[in-house]
Each structure stands twice: as structure tokens, then as C-alpha cells.
Amino acid sequence: NFHFLLNIILDTYKFKKVFESKLYTDSFVIYENKLYQSYIFKNLNLKYAEHRNYDQVEKDDYPLIVKKMYASRGDANFVLKTNNDLRNFLENNSISQYIIQKFYKLKEEYRVLVLGDKIVGIVRKKQFMKPHDNRIKISLDGSAKLDQECLNDCIKISKRIGCEFCGIDIGVKE
Predict the structure, then answer these.
(1) CA distance 158 to 148
(2) Cα dihedral sign for 151, 155, 156, 157?
(3) Residues 19-72: pLDDT tens digits?
(4) Closest CA to 169 of 131, 140, 129, 135
(5) Got the DSSP string for 123-168?
(6) The pTM is what?
(7) Pairing between β-strand 118-129 and β-strand 136-143 as defined by DSSP bridges
(8) How far, in Å, CA of 149 to CA of 172, rounded?
(9) How far is residue 93's CA from residue 76's CA, in Å, rounded to a whole number?
(10) Are 136 and 77 in contact (CB under 8 A)?
């Protein structure tokens, strides 16, 4: 599904007035695409974890996190610590369905819920890994507060992607 690429083209070139993104999709799929999300973050000058090409990973890039291209609700996020882990992953999975990013240990993680121009909720999240399992799991850990600049950025993202109701994940590195 390459709707995200069409959105980038429509966003970049002047003929976008001829095509409206609503003409080819009204689905949530575009919002769920992590490559498209990165494109939006970059355009808004927001910090995000940049992607790596699997064939250009350097030894000091590890650990990496490999995530499904489209949201999988945490069920398909894997931490890879070595070249051997990456090689095994590539042998057993279709890389076209995944993105690769540098894995950062997070001090704090949040989900901000945006409805229109308003923040309707902020939830603290916790990451954990089960022993002998390289998959990341997420649990919710109660409500939280964030600074207004961060909340304004969440509203900007929501408006930019044209999503009336969305959840935006925020991570604070250690």
C-alpha cells in the first residue's frame, strides 16, 4: 500500500489542487503508516527516530527496533542487538512490512489523545520486555501532564495529517 507516497507527492507539488487525498482514500491507513508519520514530523521540524536501511546498518547503530510499517499495537516490535539478530530477522520476515530505527531506552513515554483542537487525554505508558523475548510490550500506567509546547505540537500533527481524533506517542530518552 503506497498511499503515503501519493500523499507526499500531493503535498510537495503544485498539482495537489487537482487531486484531493480524500479522492483516493478516506481510510485511517495513511495515518497509521510510520514512514508517512516520519515525513510529517520532519516537515513540522519535530524530533523523531529516523529510519535505517537494513543494508546500511553499522555496528554502532545497535540496538535497533524493528516495527511493522503499519501500527500493530505493539505486537510486532522487536529489539535487535547484533548483526546476527538482524540477519535472523530478515531471513524469517518480509522487510517490506517493517521499518528499522535506532532503539532508545526511554525514561518516560506518553500517549496524547487529540480531538479536533483539544487535548482530551494524556496517558503514561510503560515499555517492558519479557525474559528471553526480544519483543517490546506496552502497558498503560495512569494519566499524566506534559508541557504546553509538546501539547501544541500534538495538535499541529493532528491538523497536518487531517485526523480529527488521534493518539500521538511521545518518548523522552534517558
Answers:
(1) 15
(2) positive
(3) 444 444 444 566 778 888 888 899 999 988 888 888 888 888 899 999 988 877
(4) 140
(5) EEEEEEE-TT--BEEEEEEEE----HHHHHHHHHHHHHHT-SEEEE
(6) 0.73
(7) antiparallel
(8) 14
(9) 11
(10) yes
